């Protein structure tokens, strides 16, 4: 039991409860949301996972947080664009199935990379289809056969956020749409594509929070794992 | 001067100032926005135009308002779907050029008809392309050659409002997008397609108010008239 | 080809383009969103499907629309609570797999029934778990073993909308959350649970529009069908 | 009377009116909201309290403001995490009763510490239960017996803000919910948990402003003091 | 066990799970939120409580719902103003302590009566102080001595919602503020007083949802009961 | 003292506190905001004023409320357009000075009439300038000399709400702007003109609530009365 | 004419049109809104006024802008708190009458000083009453006699913004309310007090934009000037 | 084909798909939206256009991005005010016709310059009319004859955004309105002028996103090009 949960303390205050049994129970490594955590707290959390030899993925990790982790002597990989930090001390399990991550434009790439790297960490094969927005349909139509091969599609788009609707009409796999905060003015930090995606007239699409590439990938991988589990049973 | 302006009174209160010189000055007939006007006021306004023999178009006219006008013995045409009421006592001038009015779905037709009938009243040729939304791209692509023949394109769409962006990428004519209040939940009465259209990554598109089919058509016809005027000069 | 698409006309205006090939192509029957359609339009659409012998599901159908359809002599089933209308002239295909539809309270039942009846129409087995909201956790915990048997979970909740987060932490299947407009005051017609669900700290959950039980079920069934297709290949 | 109120001046302008009789009248020390006050003003206010030998608590005090106070030679304690600054020149009165401060995650700790330190300053016993969010119910259920011992419960949560509803269903003490601005995207700076908490279907819970740990603790202590007063009478 | 929970069915669907053990466990009778429930469902729920001889309070009950309940032969009291319906078949327990319910204006009375009748149902003594808004301070100051006698104060106000802040500065008891949807224009259905109350600079006040008189009273009574329980222990 | 305040009761509940000394103290008659008051309450309030022989003005009075008052035998005047009801049993005091009430369009007349009739009730001379919106500047410029004669200007406008800014640049008198809920779509019930007016780049203009013609007139008359008072002193 | 208007150029672009005749025409000096202007533009504008010997007041002037102006050798006074910059080369005209500027708290002082300094620049006598918020009514009541002596009252308040309503009920002079962006969380940058003030149930109050101390003072001085003008006529 | 599209790679990831055939197809040079692109990506994109000898316009380009481009040895022009960066390696095609760019104030100049420089890049003649806002109508009326000579009018305004409505009533050319984020408080980053413009009661005006000078000019030039094309055909 002791190695299944850890209660971290800082200055006499218990600030986090870690769940080491999660991987065995769910088949997925642990994940940490970095914003709002002090560098001290983040290092303590990662040290605990390292000691327990559990894989861990950190999202929205700032450069400062990464350097604190690195300076603490922990072995991690960090991607500046997506701000994803991944432990290298333990190999996460793999999944059968693939996820296509598509973006409307180049500016959506950081969120798309968060999705792509999360899906990889959770064990899925990943294909990237970036800059295929609907204002130049020929770019999307040129890639659609490849996208159709994926078991799940993640549509990452800011501005008018129409990529998801068009994709859901063109593929048979489930589509998870991720609005991004790319844009200005009446984009309102991603509200425009969020509303656009929620109101899609296309069937077979659901939505996650603005800039939540992680959440889309975690959901897609849960679909894949659930399928594996049923296939085995 | 007297026949160029009329100051209507009701119960000692002057509630409207009519502009009979408008047609001569701008080439367009007069238009009246009906909501908030009493039946008495609307009848008085139309009687004044009838006496002056000027064409007039009324928008968002309720069935009750129409019946009051009809019962007053005025000769008008009324379309229930678009709530457009048009005088038949004077023939409005015509324009050279055509406008394509497109909708995402069937539920957008009332707003599209407001646009189409306004454009006709202002003298333009009109083509209608309804139910060509982006969730089933084949429907739109099957009509695109015909739409490309128009001098101006009006894209009417509720829900995610992506029709305008896709159209603006496929045609060379200017595109005016009209968000509609069709939808529910996070559509927020048309806010979702409005934001989507304002944030379009497509070039060559502008936007009017939610459900403002009239405004889109009036703008399109101003473009056509401006062109005619320059061609003549 | 002719029997794969139908272009419906009303008063010289083409208001809808029907897609009869959809079922063969996607494995799902056609669906119609009723709001904003006139009774004449809806009857014409259903008559066309009836003639083509294709199954069709209508969502958010008003009692008035249902009576118009019934009076036109079409054979349909109508559920007042969910406002779902289903054709009985053709048997839709079935899916292997099951969907659990859960609600926070009794007032969420109409949206849940929209989801449940849609999932049934699309061929899934459905289990209903209503009135298991988080303010009385014992009710939810008493049902959790049964819910865990489902291949997909739909969490329908208004008010604070926390049901989805709690469920996603308790089951392994993908969870689709549906915010409902149940509530008053600062619920803002469902905005409160919508935001709550979008910001969930639980992994493995996505969101659809407020009151969109149909969309959640359509997505869940796309997951099931996609799995079947892969299993066969 | 002179020592019960002080009218502070800066550059000929009276910018603050201090109330030294407050402690005697209400049983609570004075509190100062720091944002928007210049360092000069804050130092002047604290010097006045120091001279009058009254305890004072400052909220949302920036590091810069703290250093200005320290450099002025005033004896204070400062907590960086919660940005609480407390005078050490006078001992505030104590209360009988205890407050449990709970958080959904680690990132909510700054607001929780504002609540916990305020409750201590006002004389209550405090228990801290951090990182017990609803996406992992076992963590909360493992602590619930201890939480039930408190006279008042403060539920601090960002993201979906469901902690308060679940707690209010599990304990008998009054629950004050504090939404936090932890999150991103459609969290809108804490609007999501605020709305979630206002719409809770749980009885026995009220809400304070986003990030207002101070206000929750002040209210809880007013409950405790009111009880003491009634017990004595 | 059987008489502690009841699972109500309608047309083969279980739509509600009743909790008869609640009164014994919490000291409070059961409550039912009526909007969104069909008349059939509400009658079934009340019949179950009647059979189990448990007291029950229904909030926001429409006149139609009341008549359905009455026609089913159930013995209840109904107040049109507050839309509160109360069972008369069982006497709810009483509390020691009193609640003052205050309103800014006459139009706030329906929400205030919801609070007052709920507090009475839960066993508290209630004093009513209506139409004492801050734009005419003399009215409030004339009543303040009486209000100070209460153990808890509920401040019900629409428009600018300032009553709570002023009251919290004048009394020592905890103040629960209830914003009301009274007003028009930029009141936005109660958002104006809600924000005003959340941003109060007064200590010792918390807030509930717009028009949630019930919630304020339920919280106040939880405070009183919690005090009783501690006094006995 | 007794005849200076009256405490009205209904069913044992005191629902209103009347202030008969107001006229003597402020120089203005009493005013009543009708929404949210039952017919019984409104009649009781007006009967009390009638007995006390005090003038009273009621705003936003529904036709139903008016008929209840009339059927109770009270002598009042009612204007359907502005929904203003005025007592005829007592003559209110008069002011020296005049107010110009201007509107952008005909649909703004109801709010303008609320302002105009309120200003008359409070004793000011009133000039009406309706339908002088900025999209046809010649109409406004044709009236500007007359408007300049007024001591205060009230600018009533919906839609883009630009009338106030233009007026404030053309006259020297203080301008009070009243946004109206006239419009549709992105007008959001008057939010568009409200924001427009609050952001005016014109000096010498302030704003009242959406549709609050009463408030603008009450403010204008306070300006006039204050001037009279100073002139006499 | 030449010295009545100046058309400023920068890099071949005319960026500003100055109005030197304004003082003669309106009795007020010119004012400049600084945000969005480059330092070069601001210096050019002030140099033109200096050459023309006209008084000028600049609002929301940053420290950087001030230093650019100072380094250009222009004689100005700058107040850091209110960010008001005033020319010293010309004496503005004076007015008869006084303005009371009141604030709820110390943090509102910057906006209040903007109002106070603007009113002084426009020639009014100014009294300051700071930190008299409604949560401690005794502070306000202690100053009310002095405030009643003013010809116009400006109520500056953030948070719940109730100061204006309470003041308008206590004084006879017109009250202009200024919401401030002081606060956090659900203050939404001043929206909370803005809505509170717009929905005030007090008569005789109007509102300006958030943090617009300048606008309130300009309006108050227009009232005073208008009175002077009438007195003379 | 190879030289018509280029697929840019960075670190193994394809982040952009370039369209070199665009100019031939549409008559317009390519445009790049800079925010969200890394300096590496932007340089790679511009190098590709430079090699292909195609003209390119970059919008909202930061100073840092410009320096990266310059340091890479690419020949470009950069305007700090509008943040427009233009290639100098290829001459873009020209259009017949002119565009008038007008602003309400000096602070709107950056957005206006974005429009003016875009229109120039696309080949139109441009006239600039800055600082002609509606609060001082004489400035606008003094320029109106010149503005009437343009084929399209762009109205750039923040604050109340009324410039577009007034212009559309005074000219015959189509008017495209651009709201700007100039302002503070209830401007909400440009929402106030955006709503004002969408609700304009003037005919012949459409709207683009807040601060989208580029979009307005692109649309205006599409109008001009469309006219040329028709004239030739």
Overall description:
- The structure is a homooctamer of 233-residue chains.
- With 233 residues, the first copy, chain A, is of the alpha/beta class.
- In chain A, 37% of the residues lie in helices and 23% in strands.
- Chain A is built from 9 helices and 11 strands.
- In chain A, the strands form 3 sheets. In chain A, strands 8-7-9-10-11 form a 5-stranded parallel sheet, with helices on both faces. Chain A has a 4-stranded mixed sheet with strand order 3-4-6-5, sandwiched between helices.
- Chain A is globular.
- Chains in contact: A-B, A-C, A-D, A-H, B-C, B-F, B-H, C-D, C-E, D-E, D-G, E-F, E-G, F-G, F-H, G-H.
- Chains A and B meet through helix 7 and helix 8 of A and helix 7 and helix 8 of B.
List keywords for this structure.
homooctamer, 233 residues, alpha/beta, Rossmann fold, four-stranded mixed sheet, globular
Short description:
Chain A is α/β, with parallel strands linked by helices and about 230 residues long. The first copy, chain A, has helices spanning about 20-25, 40-50, 65-70, 110-120, 135-140, 145, 165-170, 190-200, 215-230, and strands at about 5-10, 15-20, 30-35, 55-60, 75-80, 85, 100-105, 125-130, 150-155, 175-180, 205.
